[in-house]
Amino acid sequence: xxxxxxxxxxxxxxxxxxxxxxxxxxxxxxxxxxxxxxxxxxxxxxxxxxxxxxxxxxxxxxxxxxxxxxxxxxxxxxxxxxxxxxxxxxxxxxxxxxxxxxxxxxxxxxxxxxxxxxxxxxxxxxxxxxxxxxxxxxxxxxxxxxxxxxxxxxxxxxxxxxxxxxxxxxxxxxxxxxxxxxxxxxxxxxxxxxxxxxxxxxxxxxxxxxxxxxxxxxxxxxxxxxxxxxxxxxxxxxxxxxxxxxxxxxxxxxxxxxxxxxxxxxxxxxxxxxxxxxxxxxxxxxxxxxxxxxxxxxxxxxxxxxxxxxxxxxxxxxxxxxxxxxxxxxxxxxxxxxxxxxxxxxxxxxxxxxxxxxxxxxxxxxxxxxxxxxxxxxxxxxxxxxxxxxxxxxxxxxxxxxxxxxxxxxxxxxxxxxxxxxxxxxxxxxxxxxxxxxxxxxxxxxxxxxxxxxxxxxxxxxx
Length: 463
Fold this sequence. Notes:
This protein is of the alpha/beta class. It is about 40% helix and about 15% strand.
């Protein structure tokens, strides 16, 4: 099938590459000429394990191409994915400027029946809103009188259907999540569009794709559950899923804080409740809270959507508050450990919001480092992938390129991101470089007993 993916961020690029991998003809579009030039040369603008190899493979096979010419791509393809960013506005609601621009561009270049897929996370009701924009753009942009409802358009050249197909990709495992999703959600009023989307994903649904390096063998595994619903319900599924997971993390962090005061061990508590099949063990890792590009903006956006209907989201508001306080708790722990922050040297292991990605958007580590720097500490940071200082990071923070530099002369080390690399460090050797062997494990990633046996004054979250 002929696919156009508009937007080459995490979602768009991974979606386009993986659709190319299962045999579709895919054109990925972006208005960033520098990014498109990089992709044409198989240089990745983001870090995602396995992505570079799949881009090289599918550009060489001809299944995948990149362009800045959005009009030509829309004209030539039948299935159009909208994968542009929907960043949060100052009030927490989603910024839909880029979605609107793309919808207008689609309307101006509508030459035959198209399926328009909202892959971007968009507020409830955005499917109908996108339809309206496309219709208006068709009517004013190319002289076609499209009528009030696209499904009733008399001109076959301007008929289209909108589908909500939310993504549930985790940065760091996005390729795996594309080929082995927990479910595929399709929302539309058009059965024709739903049927074509099922055909598009047929190889994924039925696990009939060629073996991909680093991924499990798909043979013998069960088919992917398919959720067919209306536009609004599909849009709500995305927000509800991310908000639930964020709330689950805030919940376990609040329990961890109680454990610290009461003398309980959050690791044992989380294991004990996670074995309950009604709860499950995932997202019960206490730490410094959630961040990244999805949870913060999706939870905030859902609270704003609810407010439009006069609903106060007390649970979600509390989840946000707990998450914000969890970052401040790390600064408080540093104060309790060092007594005085000003003039002390603090090393931070990890900058990205989670391992296996270079994404630093709303990373807890950055909030923590900025606060420590503002309190007068000399802050040093090391990350296996992030090698340039993010714009949101206090410019006083020193980026280091090896762990020895982080530990050397430090009064305190904070582990902020659970990179696998940090498990295998020679902490006995590195600890000898420190001025004082204080260690705060913000992810409960290392063994408390082992670190203490090496002479570290170790503290975690809830243990």
